[in-house]
Each structure stands twice: as structure tokens, then as C-alpha cells.
Write a structure and sequence with these properties.
By secondary structure, this protein is an alpha/beta fold. It has one domain: Neutral Protease, domain 2. Strands 1-2-5-6-4-3 form a six-stranded mixed beta sheet. Strand 5 and strand 6 form a beta hairpin. Helix 1 packs across helix 3, helix 2 crosses helix 4 and helix 5 crosses helix 6.
């Protein structure tokens, strides 16, 4: 089994992706994202939940997400509506497994080959101890939309790009607040830094992230930024930094 640490390069053959650091952002209100139903038929996988910590963080999950199957389907519909334009573009994912289990040092990870999300029950318990129930639900849903997005994305790109697309999906689905946006860093740092940069580029060149994800499947290169927007990535990054 290949293991990929955050920040390393990744490819479609990676089996384990470590998703997040221990610390996470503030919670917020649940979004009202509506995918319109176009992708429901191809983005409604079977969902299995395995709770390995029912009296700890697993109880936080069951208390705050009483119908995880419905939540997972709402999120997969949103993911597909953000990443795709036509149903034949969607990869076939027949089942997603959500496991709530103690992990060390991360909020979640995924097993690509089996479409398995693992949520860190210790993290959920810690988060819930200092946040309201609605904030905790918002955080759990945000972790799920990020991790499940990775099952639908093309992963054959550097880690920062893959993470950026997944966090872009999380933001567009309504599970990041604007307070998470900040200046500085590098465009390919991944996570929120890259996600909000991609959001900026997507607004300048509509459907940029959709076209980027599609293009990754035929071979990633940083030159894709020029191809898709007419500008190189450093020019775009400097323009984005100038907006702060």
C-alpha cells in the first residue's frame, strides 16, 4: 500500500492520502447549496458507516450527524455539480465507507482504492468540546466534502494542486468561510491557500477548476494555467495577492 504525506507529490496510484492537520478552522452556518439534481443518478453511492469509537468522538458524530447517508449524498451531489458539467465525466463510485476511528495528528484521511474516509474521532471530540453542535456539524460536513471530493477528482497532479481543488470544492459547497482566506504563502501550498487562489482564478476565467480537473487526466503541467487562462501561474498569483 502506497502512502502519501501531505505536501508530497501524488498520482492516481496513491492509496492513502493524509488530509488535514490537527487544527481546523472555525465553524459556520450550514450552506444552502443546490446542485439541481443533474448528477444525482451518478453521484449517489451506497454509504456504509463504521463507528469504531462509539463512546468517544464517535458519539459526537452520531449525535451531530444523525443521518450520515443523507448527508453524504447531499455532499456528493454538490461535489459532482462543482467538478463536472456532464454526467459521463463522473467516475463510477459505487460505495463510500465512512469510518470514525482514533487517528494520530490529523483530522481525517482517505483510502483511495476502497473509497474509504476515516474521520479522527479524537479530533471530533476535541473540536466538539470547544464548539457548538451546529459548528461541529459544519466541521464534520466540511471534512466529508473535502475527503469525498478526492474520490471524484483526478489525482494525477502535485499534492498542492489536488488539495487546492478539494478545498475549492469545500468552499464552493459552502463549508469554508471568508475568514479562512488570507494573503501570503505560495500558490501551490495546498489546502485553503491554493483553494482561495483557485477561486480567484475561477472568477477571472469561469470554469477554470472544472477545466483544470479535466485536463489533469491527460497530463498535468503548470503550463495548463497559460492554456486555460492565457496567463502564467505566477502572474495570476501576484494579481491575486494584490487583492488583499
Amino acid at each position: 500500500m502506497a502512502t502519501l504525506l501531505v505536501g508530497a507529490g501524488c498520482s492516481s496510484k496513491t492509496d492513502v492520502l493524509f488530509v488535514g492537520a490537527w487544527l481546523a478552522p472555525e465553524g459556520g452556518d450550514a450552506p444552502t447549496f443546490d446542485g439541481g439534481g443533474l448528477f444525482d443518478s451518478v453521484c449517489t453511492p451506497a454509504v456504509e458507516v463504521q463507528n469504531m469509537d462509539p463512546t468517544g468522538g464517535g458519539k459526537v458524530f452520531t449525535d451531530d450527524v444523525p443521518d450520515p447517508v443523507a448527508v453524504a449524498h447531499e455532499l456528493t451531489h454538490s461535489i459532482c455539480s462543482i467538478l463536472f458539467r456532464k454526467t459521463p465525466e463522473v467516475p463510477v463510485i459505487s460505495k463510500i465507507t465512512i469510518v470514525i476511528v482514533p487517528l494520530i495528528g490529523i483530522s481525517a484521511d482517505i483510502l483511495v482504492s476502497t473509497a474509504t474516509v476515516r474521520l479522527n474521532s479524537s479530533y471530533l471530540q476535541t473540536f466538539a468540546s470547544s464548539h457548538t453542535a451546529s459548528e461541529t456539524t459544519y466541521e464534520i460536513d466540511g471534512l466529508l466534502v473535502y475527503t469525498m471530493s478526492l474520490f471524484y477528482q483526478d489525482l494525477a497532479a502535485p499534492a498542492g494542486v489536488v488539495q487546492g481543488v478539494a478545498d475549492f470544492v469545500r468552499y464552493r459547497a459552502g463549508y469554508w468561510t471568508e475568514s479562512a482566506r488570507s494573503p501570503g504563502g505560495n500558490w501551490d501550498d495546498g489546502f485553503q491557500t491554493t483553494a482561495f487562489f483557485f477561486d480567484y482564478v475561477d472568477k477571472q476565467s469561469p470554469s477554470f477548476v472544472y477545466r483544470l480537473n479535466q485536463a489533469i487526466g491527460t497530463g498535468y503541467s503548470v503550463d495548463l494555467f497559460v492554456t486555460l487562462t492565457g496567463k502564467d501561474v505566477i502572474t495570476l498569483w501576484n494579481e491575486y495577492q494584490a487583492t488583499f
